[in-house]
Specification:
The protein has one domain: BirA Bifunctional Protein, domain 2 (2-Layer Sandwich). The protein is α+β, with helices and mostly antiparallel strands. The longest helix has 30 residues. Helix 1 packs across helix 2 and helix 4 packs antiparallel against helix 6. It starts with 7 loop residues before the first helix and ends in a 6-residue tail after the last helix.
Length: 213
């Protein structure tokens, strides 16, 4: 199946699911999900595989065992190209439109320790600061789980204090629902964004890597 963009109905499907996140609604519209959302996401990632690697397309069912929110279905469809566990490139479709991102999402204690050690060191930390500044200048949003205060032992005047607060680090770009997402051009939007994010993933792979536990 060639990727031809996301139908407008893909986004309205998620608006309706947000309003009625029930098995009754899902059973009545499961074929819509498959045709409007899942198949286009698979087609998109299949076309990007030669450059970025294979993607895992996530299941639509939520794990509600430890969550107070017992809604059974995810209100977005994500796909992840894993470089190492918890680190890689991501694309998502939801009622809000489409998002493409990359970076490290997990933050095991040993990963956080290696990350902060590399940020603190001048050569590696300066390189990351330049990467992140370049992504922000290009219009990407810098995100991730961060401390509100500085980590223990880090001086207030550290030149990379903001980066040292991070326990995970991502950068992303998003697009609202609308005609640009209905065309094959979406492929180029994701490809361009992922290419911008590859250097960030490379830095994180080199200096942080997978959890060792």
């Amino acid at each position: 199946m060639a990727f031809e963009g996301f139908p407008a109905e893909a986004f309205s499907f998620y608006r309706r699911l947000e309003a009625d996140n029930s098995r009754t609604f899902w059973d009545a519209h499961k074929d819509d999900y498959q045709r409007l959302v899942r198949e286009p996401v698979i087609a998109l990632t299949d076309e990007l595989e030669a450059e970025f690697g294979p993607a895992a397309v996530f299941r639509p069912y939520r794990d509600t065992r430890f969550s107070p929110d017992k809604s059974p279905y995810k209100t977005h469809q994500g796909a992840f190209v894993e470089r190492v566990p918890g680190l890689g490139l991501y694309v998502e479709v939801s009622a809000d439109g489409m998002l493409a991102s990359g970076g490290i999402h997990s933050h095991a204690p040993d990963q956080v320790e290696r990350y902060r050690r590399a940020v603190d060191a001048a050569p590696s930390g300066t390189a990351l600061a330049a990467l992140v500044a370049g992504l922000a200048q290009d219009g990407l949003s810098i995100g991730g789980d961060r401390l509100k205060t500085r980590p223990r032992g880090v001086p207030e005047d550290h030149p990379r204090l903001d980066l040292l607060r991070h326990r995970s680090l991502t950068a992303s770009r998003d697009w609202p629902p609308g005609p640009p997402l209905h065309r094959r051009d979406v492929l180029d939007l994701v490809r361009k964004t992922w290419r911008q994010l590859v250097p960030l993933c490379d830095w994180l792979c080199e200096h942080v890597g997978p959890p060792q536990a």
